[in-house]
Amino acid sequence: MAQAVPSLGAAYAQALARWLGDPVLRLAGRPIITECYRSPERQEELYKQGRSKPGPIVTYKRGGESKHNKLPTPALDVAFILPDGEVSWSGLLLSKFARLMKAADARVRWGGDWPGFKDRPHFEV
Ligand SMILES: [Zn+2]
């Protein structure tokens, strides 16, 4: 998170504190950042997935086009560690976390709100 732009880092820290301060949410799982800065080379590899490489399409941005490719980085991706230790990308948990992120800073945009391709783990300013 040291690579994140300050407003995004502050929004995440506040949303995380609210999440962990809520006994129901805390029992559901713990938010984690899976990625913040991503090199243009890695972005290009991800772009190939579902196109010239096997797997599902995970991005529509080529290397250098994603907000993840900038430093400091105005984007981060979130997942959850569930009580059993599994990593989860639950849409329900992500939508609950998105509410806290948007409440922390009105400039936060959630990929789950985008028309068309929903990128629910994704937050950006
Ligand atoms: Zn993302």
Automatic annotation (TrEMBL):
This is Peptidoglycan L-alanyl-D-glutamate endopeptidase CwlK. SUPFAM superfamilies: Hedgehog/DD-peptidase. One of its GO terms (molecular function) is peptidase activity. Residues 95-125 form the Peptidase M15C domain. Gene3D superfamilies: 3.30.1380.10. CDD domains: L-Ala-D-Glu_peptidase_like.
